[in-house]
Amino acid sequence: MAVKGQDIASVIKKQIEGFGTDLGMVDVGTVVEVGDGIARVHGLSGVAYNELVEFGGGVAGIALNLEEDSVGVVILGDPSDIKEGSEVRGTGQVMQVPVGEQLLGRVLDGIGNPIDGKGSINTSETREVEIVAPNVAIRKGVDTPVQTGIKAIDAMIPVGRGQRELIIGDRTTGKTAICVDSIINQKGGDLICIYVAIGQKVGKVAQTVGILEQFGAMEHTIVVAANASDAAPMQYLAPYTGCAMAEYFMLQGKDVLIAYDDLSKHAWAYRQMSLLLKRPPGREAYPGDVFYLHSRLLERAARLDDAHGGGSVTALPVIETQAGDVSAYVPTNVISITDGQIYLEPELFNAGIRPAVNAGVSVSRVGSAAQTKAMKSVAGTLRLALSQYRELVTFAQFGTDDLDEATKRQLGRGERSVEILKQGQNAPVPMEQQVAILFALNEGYVDDVDVSDVMSWEQAFHGFMTSNHKDLLKQISDDADLSDSSKEKLTSAIEDFKKSGLV
Fold it and tell me: What 3-state DSSP class applies to 320?
């Protein structure tokens, strides 16, 4: 980024004209070029990377490009007052955002200012948006589940506290729904939730907030929204802002769930800024450090050991693919950073199988370590059985007349498994109810139910168990295990339900 000779000349001329005897040690620069939310500044020799700078009208900016003869600054406010020749001062500080309990239930912009019309936030505590991730030595293994309330995920692709589980799929396949349902399911629990909306339409964010309020989930949730209409720097900062708020709670020994929806738009905002800063473009026009952009964010999700409070941050980053292409630049980057992925398939979604989780491609690198013993005992073979069923279906479509009885049974069980794993939006299922229905499936109690009636059978079963066997469900929930006596009671309850004729 070379500075033109006439720019330098005009700056020097101005400095000579204003030459006086007052001496100071303030780091001051001059704007030589401004446009598209980017200012090129001459001077500011002592400025640091990511340092906050202040323009003449009180508008803030962040120094992102440090070159020999100029500094590239992204403008965080209204750039209309910034003109060529405007004064810029270094602050010696990096970007900080408000943190604290007072933020719960509020909707904030990309730098932590309230945008929900509920007044200012009374918190004096702040935290830097860019912090080095916790050391490996102070981390603890992931062994405690995050109950999402989604049967397909809790049973087959479990998410543990301190994990980074990627949600990936094409547009309109239900990625946001998984994040929102996971947040709703934490009502009354001990998980604090943060939902970061990046580059979404204002109406969609308002709709999401409305759903969270409707189900009473805003009490334990902070929403950080950098909308599509906001400047690229705000969209760039939003996930780091959300992460700083999450770390505040983690360091207090609390558990936090944070959803980044979505990091594709975050990468687009960063690419826009980088190209305007005239950084050399690489693959798909992204700058060379786009991997570092997401790795330094997601590595901050961790579970700390007991000596450091035992808190955790669980990250659910979302990536939008184009026509199912998971080999594009940003998806492959984020897949390599995370501890597994939940892959949502458009074909399943369009076929009415929702959530559209592809069990064969989805994986959790933590595995059953992030499951309760009760869930482990009923869901152990489910994923394998489902994958085998999908393979069998391909062969069975040519005709089932010649198939042996065992294969027919497997196909029948697979069809009913698919129906059981279907779930409506904003209707998370508690762990104990998931265990009960999966136990019934495994033991063959659903095999004689017509495939078209399975979902209504399940609803009636949950109602029966809640009304008549509340103590048994509570026992499964409290013990987090399925003992022999619990299995006997559950078997007896299922048989009573089948005899009751409620379906």
Answer: strand
Domain, as residue range, for 492? 378-500
Q: What is the CATH number of the domain that holds 66?
A: 2.40.30.20
Instruction: Give which of 157, 154, 186 is closest to 434, Cα–Cα.
Output: 154
Residues 304 and 404 in one domain: no
Q: Does one domain contain both 352 and 225?
A: yes
Burial of 116: CB neighbours in 10 Å, binned 0-12, 13-18, 19+: middle
Q: Which of 308, 341, 371 is the last residue of a domain?
A: 371
Burial class (CB in 10 A: 0-12, 13-18, 19+), 489: middle
**Number of domains the chain is built from:** 3
Residues 271, 279: Cα–Cα separation, whole Å: 9
Q: Do 228 and 344 share a structural domain?
A: yes
pLDDT, tens digit, for every residue of 281-323? 999 999 999 999 999 999 999 999 999 999 999 999 999 999 9
Burial class of residue 420, CB neighbours in 10 A (0-12, 13-18, 19+): buried
Same domain, 60 and 135: no
Round to the nearest angstrom and report the end-to-end CA distance of the chain.
73
**Residue 21 confidence (pLDDT) above 60:** no
Q: How confident is the model over 459-485, as a mean pLDDT? A: 94
Contacts of residue 483, Cβ cutoff 8 Å, sequence gap at least 6? none
Neighbours of 446 (CB within 10 A): 24
Which member of 365, 390, 409, 413 is catalytic?
A: 365
Domain assignment present for residue 113? The answer is no
Q: Could you give the angle at the alpha carbon of 163 between the alpha carbons of 160 and 169, nearest 5°?
A: 100
Q: Is 316 helix (H, G, I), strand (E, B) or coil?
A: strand
The Cα 258–Cα 250 span in angstroms is 12
Q: How far apart are CA 151 and CA 437, in angstroms?
A: 10
Do 145 and 370 form a contact (C-beta atoms < 8 A)? Answer: yes
Read off the CATH number of the domain in which 319 is found.
3.40.50.300
Predicted confidence (pLDDT) at residue 400 exceeds the cutoff of 70: no
94-119: per-residue pLDDT in tens? Answer: 999 999 999 999 999 999 999 999 99
Residue 204 vs residues 111, 184, 200, 208, 227: alpha-carbon distances, Å: 20, 17, 7, 6, 10
Q: Measured between alpha carbons, how far is 321 from 330 in angstroms, rounded to an integer?
A: 9
Tokens of 112: 């932590």
Q: Is the pLDDT of residue 503 over 70?
A: no
Indicate if 164 belongs to the active site: no
SS3 state of residue 113: coil
- Map 11-75 to HEC letters: HHHHHHHCCCCCCCCCCEEEEEEEECCEEEEEECCCCCCCEEEEECCCCEEEEEEECCCCEEEEE
* DSSP 8-state class, residue 391: H
Q: What is the Cα–Cα distance from 144 to 147, expressed in whole angstroms?
A: 9
